Amino acid sequence: MGAMNRKARQPTRQPIRQPTRPPAHEPTRPPAHESARSPDRPQARRPGRLLRRVGGADLTAVPEVRHALRELLGSWGEPGAGDVAELLTSELVTNALVHTGQGAVVTATVVPEQLRVEVRDFEPGLDRPPVPPADDGTSGRGLFLVRELADSWGVEEQGTGKVVWFELNGGAA
């Protein structure tokens, strides 16, 4: 059989500038008297935000986003919480890149009590999440994992496209 001709694609990841002021619904740094570390309460190193655009079909973006999330989280949450966050983020980013052709925007916001990750794609329509297959295949389980491991999750229509999001409250799954 002849070899398939493929054009080499250059990654289209471009950093997105963060706004100078967070929108009203986004967390801000707590006052100094509230930021003292309590030994029984999960803490991030500091409140922070990750904002990354990933190009369509560029699966090399998945480990890069996972690494950036790991850096953002630091020692946030109970042991294992960061691993769950990385897994779920990887699943959402992979879904967006595999099932859409226009890339995605990944936003992660972490405060001491909670992490929220959103992956926005630019494909219209809200498809019903598939039921994972009964066999031992390795695909079709992304949203199932999100549903089972996240404290909350959802899908919201956003003009052109949708946002798939999850939240973790800092405890390990």
Task: Name some characteristics of this structure.
kinase; single chain; alpha+beta; HATPase_dom; serine/threonine-protein kinase; disordered N terminus; globular; 5 strands; Heat Shock Protein 90; HATPase_C_sf; 173 residues
- What would you call the shape? globular
H/E series = EHHEEHEE
Rounded to an integer, what's the Rg over CA atoms?
17 Å
Give the strand order of the largest sheet, numbering strands 1, 2, ... along the chain: 1-2-3-5-4
The termini sit apart by 48 Å
Q: Are there runs of 5+ residues with pLDDT below 50, and where?
A: 1-45
> What percentage of residues falls in helices of 4 or more residues?
10-25%
How would you classify the helix and strand content by structural class? alpha+beta
Structure report:
InterPro entries: Anti-sigma-factor_SerPK (IPR050267), HATPase_C_sf (IPR036890), HATPase_dom (IPR003594). Residues 23-43 have a biased composition (Basic and acidic residues). This is Histidine kinase/HSP90-like ATPase domain-containing protein. With 173 residues, the protein is an alpha+beta fold. The protein has a domain at 43-127 and 138-168: Heat Shock Protein 90 (2-Layer Sandwich). 23% of the residues lie in helices and 21% in strands. It has helices spanning 61-73, 81-99, 142-149; strands at 48-54, 104-111, 114-121, 152-157, 162-168. Strands 1-2-3-5-4 form a 5-stranded antiparallel sheet, with helices on one face. A hairpin with a 4-residue loop joins strand 4 and strand 5. Helix 1 packs antiparallel against helix 2 and helix 2 (81-99) packs antiparallel against helix 3. The radius of gyration is 17 Å and the shape is globular. Residues 1-45 have low confidence and may be disordered.
